[in-house]
Structures are given as structure tokens and as C-alpha cells.
Specification:
2 copies of one chain form a homodimer. Chain A is an alpha+beta fold. Chain A contains 10 helices and 7 strands. Chain A has 2 domains: about 60 residues, Arc Repressor Mutant, subunit A, CATH 1.10.10.10; about 170 residues, GAF domain (Beta-Lactamase, 2-Layer Sandwich), CATH 3.30.450. Helix content of chain A is about 45%, strand content about 20%. In chain A, helix 2 packs across helix 3, helix 5 runs antiparallel to helix 10 and helix 7 runs antiparallel to helix 8. Chains A and B meet through helix 1, helix 3, helix 4 and strand 4 of A and helix 1, helix 3, helix 4 and strand 4 of B. Chain A binds a DNA duplex (30 and 30 nucleotides) through helix 3.
Chain lengths: ~250, ~250
DNA sequence: GCACCCGTTGCGTTCTGTGCAACACTCATT
DNA sequence: AATGAGTGTTGCACAGAACGCAACGGGTGC
């Protein structure tokens, strides 16, 4: 919408890949060096970009401050965290917390597995929306037309033979998840990794977040993982209750 | 430097204070509503800003992703973290890790105290540069003219009667810190809180980060806290050594 | 039903961002 | 030393993009 800002903001994910010098930035943005310089300076003034001693640019520490403040306003996260830790202590596996935002589902918290074999994921990273248990949980509670609109807009990458193949299958899966109140991902994203998840609901009963437990086949089989379902659901419900307690009804 | 980008970026800290609607943003920026709308839309397109259900804007979860990626490139943090945890387990108090960037000193990691009485701080937050132990450690290793330039540019807020009063006192303090290789903050920021810290050095011997242990008077006296100094220094040195081991000399 | 408030749109003007070209600087190479 | 290629930086004229205005639309409350 605004060309200048658009270009400037495009620099951030670019630098997230690693430090870059002025020329590289200009090339990647397809603008003149002087333009890139001006944009970088402005970003620098706001602390979002830092110039390291070799003159190359990288993301600035101010991003931490902003992200951290943003996190403080995501109060679900604060409330959920101790529960996630408890769940991890009980089962030992990786625990994720995710929210739905702008047609993306993002992990906003994570407690690492105690086992040496870990799955790769990253807080803030968009999840594979067509297969992840948390994604299904969050989308399942949307209205029927919304679900349909999203389902049809998505791509359905075949991460594995078990990945959701198309919109039709996805909508059916969402209906199932909505019905049963929990979801799984059995090798749909990575062949050897299974997940089981449950929704955290707002005061209006719709899911505002979702948590999941993930473990590789080599540690526990899918059947064994499913025995954790009651625990996972109880944890989600505990968070839901606590969230309801602290939530003041909409002010205005 | 670039007006449009400057305005757009100014929205971020504004929203960090809490969600705001279009009118509020426009007022705070002192621009027309339509201008604010355009900027917000652009930020939104990049995921830095999220529009919640009541139409108000807040910071977007994409900021997490960026901050997280930025953190992965701050390799000091990765290396230091387990040491900080170990230090916390040994002494029980709050442990901070900070770096110096653009005339600010920022916390980039933190391990919470095990005691119920905690001090307030936040990762990403700029620290009180004139009094904090970590700030003194990081500035002490700059060249003499740099130190002088910074010292004279700073304000010297009197947080407490023990706060550093002026540039002269600060420069003297920096000299002491440089000499002895460790630093304290004894009630200089908050009356009842004491800190003791030590520097983490790069391969060139200059401090690239600093860690500190903080505890309130009610838990341990300043004298007791100082008995931790050898442990704090050993921890910092261990991180320094590990950092030196993993650091590949500048490529080009 | 009215008035009010808020977000949104289209448009003409003008200010701002743009790319160019020249400059300054460092670092290798000859 | 001198040359050249590679950086980052500056000033400037032009054009195009961002600006503010005014009018519209869709709520909400009186």
C-alpha cells in the first residue's frame, strides 16, 4: 500500500536470514543503493536494525523489546506457560502453544522435549496449516463459510503421503476436530513425528489458542502418544478456566 | 530520514503500550486518519501489526518470528544461556545477560530468581545506563574518547541517593570497573536492589556482553551478594572461553 | 429516526522519495 | 606509489508517491 514503508519492512525478513551489506540489500530490494541506504538509516534510527562493526546490517535488539512487549499483551501466553511446563514435566515431550492470526497459525510458546531427539520448530514461525494439530483446532471453530473460504485458498503441500491432500479432505477433518474437541497430526508433516492437541477456549467458547504435544516415532508410538490425550485435554481445559477467570469482559 | 517509514515505525512502540484504534494512532502521529490507515495497512501486510476483533490494532505475532530469528544470530546468547541457568541454580537469584548496542545497553536474556521476591526487568528493555553493573562493564572497555563522549551525552537521573550523579563520577567509576574487571550496582537504581556483574569478552579481549546477578536486600545483604563474585566471574570466564572456541575468525 | 462517531475511499496537490552521478574511502594489486 | 575495483556516502532535479481533504458508509446510542 505504501511503497516506501513496504520496501523498508521487506528489509527485516531479509536481514533475519543473516547480516547483509548495503549492496546486497539494494539488490534484493531491486532499488538504488542510495534508496536502500535511506531506508536502512531510518530502520536504524528506530533501533530495528543494527550496524555491526564490519559495517554490515543485522536485526537490532530493539526488536526484542517490541516482541517482548507484544508478548505481555498476549495474556493467554502468560497464563498458559506454567501449564505447558507442567505438561512437559508429566510427559517429557515437546509442548507447543499456537494462535491463529491473519490466516496464519503461529507458535507463540514452546517447551522443549526432555528426550535428546527433538523436533525442529521455532516460536513465531508459521505452522503447516493444512496438517498441524494446532492449526486444525484453531480453524475448526470458525464459521462454516470462513472455513470454506480458507480451505479453498490454501495450498496442500504433500509433506508426506499422510498430508491432507485437498480442501475437501481438510474441511472434513475440521468437522471431525470440531466434533470431538481434539486433534492429531500423525505423520502428516514429518513422517516420523506425531502430535496430539486440544483447544483453549475464550469466554465465548471459541478456541483462541491451541496446545499440542509432539513426539517422534522413535520415542513413542502414535498409540502411546494418544494415551496422553486425557492429560492434554485436561491441561487445555485448566488453561481455559484460568483464562476465563482473569478475563475482564470487553470494556466498551 | 525517510518521513513515511519514520512515521510507520513510530507506530510500533506506540502499539507496544497497548492496542489502539485508528483515531488514536492518527492523533499520536499527528497525521490525518487516512495517512495513518495507509501506514497501518502496510504494517499489517507485513504481519507486524494485527487487527483484533474489535478493530483495534496491536502488535502482530510476526514480530516474534523476527525477534526469534534475530536471537538465533546473536550467538553469545545461545552459548551463554546454559551458563546463566547454572549460575541461577547455584545462587538462586535473578541472572541477566546484556549487550551494548547503539548507545544503549539491553538485556537479551534473563533467568528468574527462585525467590518469591523478584525484581522487575524485561528482555529487550534498555537498562539504566548510568548505574547498572552490566552497563558499566560494557562501557568500561570502550576507548577513552568514546567513554568521554558517551558520559557527557548522558543524563544522570537520581533514581536513588546512590545513583551516579554526573559524568565525572561515571568516568571514574568506569575506570575502576575497567581496572578490577567486575562491577556492582549497590542500590543505585532501586534502593533495595543490589547487583554484581562480570564481563564476557570477545577474542580481541574487549567485552561483548556482560552478566549480572541481582537480589533485593530483603533476601541477601550487599556483603553476602559480593561473596558470589568469584562464582560470577568464573561463569563469565567460562562463557568467554566457550565463545572463543566457537568463533570462527572473520571470514573475509 | 436522527445524530454522532469511526473507518474507508477517490482524488488533486505537493511534498517526499527516488535514481543518477560524482565523491570519498579502503583495500588489493601492479 | 600509483592504479583500480570495490565499498558507502552526498547533493540534486525530477517524477511519482504519499499526503490531507472532503465525502461516503456503516455502525451505535440517544
Amino acid at each position: 500500500m505504501s511503497q516506501t514503508v513496504d520496501r523498508a519492512l521487506s528489509i527485516l525478513p531479509l536481514l533475519a536470514e543473516g547480516p547483509a551489506d548495503l549492496g546486497q540489500v539494494a539488490t534484493r530490494l531491486d532499488v538504488h543503493k542510495s534508496t536502500a541506504l535511506r531506508l536502512l538509516r531510518t530502520l536504524h534510527d528506530h533501533g530495528l536494525v543494527y550496524r555491526q562493526s564490519d559495517q554490515r546490517y543485522r536485526l537490532g535488539a530493539r526488536l526484542f523489546a517490541l516482541a517482548q512487549e507484544a508478548a505481555e499483551h498476549l495474556d493467554v501466553r502468560e497464563i498458559a506457560h506454567p501449564h505447558l511446563v507442567a505438561l512437559n514435566e508429566a510427559c517429557g515431550h515437546t509442548v507447543h502453544l499456537a494462535i491463529h492470526e491473519d490466516n496464519e497459525v503461529l507458535y507463540i510458546d514452546k517447551v522443549e522435549s526432555r528426550y535428546p531427539v527433538r523436533m525442529y520448530s521455532r516460536i513465531g514461525k508459521p505452522v503447516a496449516i493444512t496438517v498441524a494439530a494446532v492449526a486444525k483446532l484453531l480453524l475448526a471453530d470458525l464459521s462454516e463459510p470462513e472455513r470454506r473460504a480458507i480451505a479453498e485458498r490454501l495450498d496442500y503441500p504433500r509433506y508426506t503421503p499422510r498430508s491432507t491432500p485437498n480442501a475437501e479432505a481438510y474441511l472434513k477433518e475440521l468437522a471431525t476436530v470440531r466434533e470431538q474437541g481434539w486433534a492429531t497430526d500423525l505423520g502428516g508433516h514429518e513422517e516420523s513425528i506425531n502430535c496430539v492437541g486440544a483447544p483453549i477456549r475464550g469466554t465465548d467458547g471459541r478456541s483462541i489458542a491451541a496446545l499440542s504435544v509432539s513426539a517422534p516415532n522413535v520415542v513413542v508410538t502414535a498409540e502411546e502418544l494418544l494415551t496422553l490425550l486425557p492429560l492434554v485435554r485436561r491441561t487445555a481445559e485448566a488453561i481455559t478456566r484460568e483464562y476465563a477467570g482473569t478475563t475482564t469482559p470487553p470494556a466498551a
